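seq as requested:
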Amino acid sequence: MHMIEINDPLAIPIAQQVIEAGGIAAFPTDTIYGIGASAYLPAAIDRIYAIKGRDLSKSIPVLIGSMEQLSVVVSEFNEIAQRLAERFWPGPLTIVLPKHPDLPANLSTTETIGVRFPAHPFIAQLITQAGPLAVTSANLSGGQNTLTAQDVVDQLGDRLDLILDGGSTPGPIPSTVVSCLGSDYKILRHGVITASQIDVLFS
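struct tokens:
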């Protein structure tokens, strides 16, 4: 396992190389630390499940680094989702939408995928260069959310190929998850963005 600070000029090139080679990297986001792999490499996605001890029935969300990447991740972006994205992206909101048919089957056992555009300049830049990432929290399933690189080392340590140290994250609350399928929305997980902040958009 290799660790590098995100302000190191080599951080992005090294992380991109690791990810494109099928490696798993941990990094800070605008909520907590996450671990990620290319959203298009099934073997790397399998490794995320194994590293965390994650139930295979639980989908892994995809992070994008720009709105332009949305079209290769989802097959539909309806009006409700657009309004949420305009208000809360980049930010701590994961939107569940119909997944793009080109995404690997092991990302999600259903026809949907959670998508987030994080408000973290380093991660947005990395995703812009390396492509959309399959990302979930950098902890053992059921473990405490990780707020520092050392927290990640303590839980996952040598299971990872790379840890990108960005200091402390805002945590410990993760992103809010909202399903936008059909003509309505449903909050699936309460997080940083409150239900009232979402409801007021549609009132």
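The mean pLDDT is 96.
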